[in-house]
Amino acid sequence: MRFHRPGSRSVVAALLVVSVAACGGGGGTFAGGSGVGDPYFPKAGNGGYDVRHYVLDLAYDPRAHHLTGTATITARATEDLSALNLDLRGLDVEEVTVDGVAARWSRAGQELTVRPREAVEGTFRVTVRYAGAPVTVTDPDGSEEGWLRTADGALALGEPVGSMAWFPGNHHPSDKATYSLAVTVPKELRVVSNGEPAGEEREGSRTTYRWRTGEPMASYLATLAVGRYDVRRTATDGGLPVYTAVDPEQAGESRAVLARIPEVLAWAERTFGPYPFSSAGAIVERPEDAGYALETQSRPVFPGAPDIVLLVHEIAHQWYGDSVTPRTWRDMWLNEGFATYAQWLWQEDHGGDTAQRTFDLLYAGSYFPDAGTAEALWSFPPAEPPDAASVSATPVYWRGAMVLHKIRQAVGDDAFFALLRGWAREHRHGNADTGDFTAYVEKAAPGEDFAGIWEEWLYGEGRPERP
Ligand SMILES: [Zn+2]
């Protein structure tokens, strides 16, 4: 069963009620559906259930480029389901069971439709056994994600829809879950992922590495890095474990900047509130291994040694994006506008340009060295990217940050920084959309009129007439 469900969550719920009623109510079960109605990625995620926990038991041999996996997904059905979908791209499915009983299944594109022997209700467990050569996914904007082969192993990056290249799941940011991973690789390699290590075992020529993520994580923030890393565990003054994994070629250049992770975390906690996860760190690959940095949860990935500002950007995402996660891909500015504004704040606090000056230069068109990017800043409103290829485009980052600066101008510094912290606290480990944000700001500063900021800066076409 394949159908699109455009519209908001409440519209989706209303449609479901109608469709069940239209069936005459007989049995009262229905197929979960192939998407959650994301405006840009309509087939991402699936309807009818909410994943609680993923157990991924994987083995990867880089030389053969072969992955074998067993994914055990514990989920709660939001309706009685006669069928449910998982997202999985490439790979061969060998067996599917639901609560231990073999289930029928079929595939169409990225949709793996599972038909359990009996309709599922309440909490259930789907196990998928699969194998094959995991694929690299090219995004609508031309960047690469999914499973990236590296000189000595592999790197999995998932924004926005790449994680379905290495495990079946509900691959939409609105469904967050906890994770347990066990990954077996040739003994000369290491495996690094999100969260905390949970042991390693050598058996013959292979080693199994275990990692656990105990806080909810959107699947696009899951990462898996296989290679020859220099792995270190340090801690902040407050005792937060910091795990770094660095490609040996990047070790020299990375040392000084990675040593500043505790300092950046301390600054970010003063600015944004308590760090939302139980460990921190970074993964540094070779520049040619990935085309961009990504804020993979608790352990951002960098293509080569980052500079301090890029490190600040990805660490700020731990609050804005990873803990407070967009409800759909339309809300991407809530990630990138905030992480970009964090860069401005860091520079302001460390002897660089003030956020006001950065804002003024952007408005004047003299911030970016090339006229094309300066012009692209005004190509669409940050809260309404025109298409899937634009969810990571310039206005989402820079004009998104300008929206935050306009709010700061309106309410003043004390109220603004309280607002940054309050937003992170209110939606900690959850999901939020642009409407939630504007409502939050209006409630936090009831004496201010934000209508002009929303109309011109957040939703308005073109360059606002006045800075
Ligand atoms: Zn970012």
Automatic annotation (TrEMBL):
Pfam families: Peptidase_M1 (PF01433), Peptidase_M1_N (PF17900). One of its GO terms (molecular function) is aminopeptidase activity. PROSITE patterns: PROKAR_LIPOPROTEIN. It comes from the Bacteria. Its EC number is 3.4.11.2. Its cofactor is Zn(2+). Residues 310-457 form the Peptidase M1 membrane alanine aminopeptidase domain. Belongs to the peptidase M1 family. This is Aminopeptidase N. It comes from Streptomyces atrovirens.
